[in-house]
Each structure stands twice: as C-alpha cells, then as structure tokens.
Amino acid sequence: MSMHGKHVAAIEDFKAVVAAQPQNANAHYNLGLEYFETKDYEAARTQAKIAQDLKFPLDGLQKMLQQRGKWTE
Asked: Which residue segments constitute the domains of the chain, with CATH numbers given?
C-alpha cells in the first residue's frame, strides 16, 4: 500500500472514531493530521478547529496549516 493509501485508510479509521466519540479531541486532531498529509487542507483546518475547541493541548497541526497559508485565527 502506498503512503497515500495508508493516509486514506487512516482517515477512514479516524472518521469512525470521531463518529463514535465526537468529543474525542485526540481523534479530531489525528484526523486533521491525516487530511493534511493528503493535502485536504480545508478538512484538516476543520478538524484542527474542532480539536482546539475541545481543548486539545497541541498546536502542531495549526502551525503546519499556517505554513501553508491555510490557518486563519
């Protein structure tokens, strides 16, 4: 499986976790990281904002999006 394929598979896994546990900030953050890796920056930003709203303590995803000009806060 290619790296892209692995990221797509991970997206599906994290989407299932988020659906089952919508308050799981870690799952939203990791879903955002996987979207970032597939260059779906809009979806990554959405997940980063949800994780932030849920008080997720890390901001690496936001910084990665800022570097791409995809984070506005």
From this structure: 3-67 (1.25.40.10)
